[in-house]
Q: What sequence folds into this?
């Protein structure tokens, strides 16, 4: 499995500049807020969303300076949402380190999320793309609705696949779509090509979340940097669980573990899932979404960009974390 995605040296160098920009923003506030922002930033991350802004930008003519605010904004919103998500999930670990609220307390965690979220809109508003703040606002609403859908559906072992797909579209795929759309718009890519890139992002995001849900039932916690089985413990029904229920023809084993704070019950349920082909079937669905993503950009120029976006798609469904 790949641990990083295949992009050109130029994009990798630009991502280094994005990292410097994030560091500058994290160091701006006073005291504990800067310390806590700095430590969440230092925990790293794939920076996949800013990479998508940069890649989509190469379909047109934007400079790094024109793309930079959008790179920062999508990553800041992503980071903010994870800090808040870890509070809601009461997750102790993120990226192999204590989560922000575990290290600094819930009050600081909420403030860090609010700060990063606010900064995203500050940088987006300063960009030369008047539609950027409203596009980001819509996506933020999607994220919030997706998160709420997840809470409302907690412990529902009978969740329909359509409800799961609607949730992950809002919670995850929306920001991937927006990253691609902002890169395209900032680069003055013509409408149909911008829509194609946004469609690629949306489908890629679906694949990403489905694969994330596979890793949660079939990954290894020391590799992932967070606990395996967290979705079971939190009561979050996912696609591989649905496939396992379908294959076993029973749901009691899942009901006994979903939302139950018992390591034994979670381990038992993971063992049941492991005996089925659920993880593989969910990976196959993720692969179908990558194929749809690549299909959306079939006519996109330049051709080299199409190949890179296909490689990114393959990475998303083969990564460790
Ligand atoms: C991680 O999912 C969480 C998200 C993708 C979205 C979280 C959204 C919110 C908390 C609401 C909106 C917040 C803002 C700032 C707009 P996961 O729990 O499946 O992944 P994980 O296992 O990595 O935690
Ligand atoms: Mg979570």
A:
């Amino acid at each position: 499995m790949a641990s990083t995605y295949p992009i050109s040296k130029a994009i990798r160098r630009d991502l280094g500049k994005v990292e410097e920009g994030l560091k500058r923003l994290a160091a701006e506030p006073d005291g504990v807020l800067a310390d806590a922002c700095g430590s969440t930033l230092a925990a790293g991350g794939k920076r996949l969303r800013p990479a998508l802004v940069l890649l989509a930008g190469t379909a047109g003519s934007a400079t790094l300076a024109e793309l930079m605010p959008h790179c920062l904004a999508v990553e800041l919103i992503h980071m903010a949402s994870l800090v808040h998500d870890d509070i809601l999930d009461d997750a102790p670990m993120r990226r192999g380190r204590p989560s922000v609220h575990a290290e600094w307390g819930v009050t600081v965690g909420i403030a860090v999320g609010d700060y990063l979220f606010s900064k995203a809109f500050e940088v987006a508003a300063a960009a030369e793309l008047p539609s950027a703040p409203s596009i980001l606002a819509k996506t933020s609403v999607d994220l919030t609705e997706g998160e709420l859908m997840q809470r409302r559906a907690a412990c529902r072992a009978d969740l329909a696949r359509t409800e799961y797909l609607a949730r992950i579209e809002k919670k995850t795929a929306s920001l991937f779509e927006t990253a691609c759309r902002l890169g395209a718009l900032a680069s003055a890519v013509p409408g149909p090509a911008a829509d194609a890139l946004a469609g690629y992002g949306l489908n890629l995001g679906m694949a990403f979340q489905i694969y994330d849900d596979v890793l949660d039932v079939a990954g290894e916690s020391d590799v992932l940097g967070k606990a395996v089985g967290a979705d079971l413990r939190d009561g979050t029904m996912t696609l591989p669980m649905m496939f396992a229920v379908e294959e076993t023809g029973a749901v009691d084993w899942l009901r006994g573990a979903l939302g139950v704070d018992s390591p034994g019950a979670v381990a038992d349920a993971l063992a049941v899932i492991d005996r089925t082909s659920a993880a593989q079937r969910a990976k196959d669905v993720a692969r179908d979404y990558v194929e749809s993503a690549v299909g959306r950009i079939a006519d996109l120029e330049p051709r080299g960009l199409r190949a890179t976006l296909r490689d990114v798609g393959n990475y998303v469904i083969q990564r460790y974390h």
Q: What stands out?
A: The radius of gyration is 19 Å. Residues 85, 89, 91 surround magnesium ion (ligand 2) (CB under 6 Å). Residues 191-218 form the longest helix (28 residues).
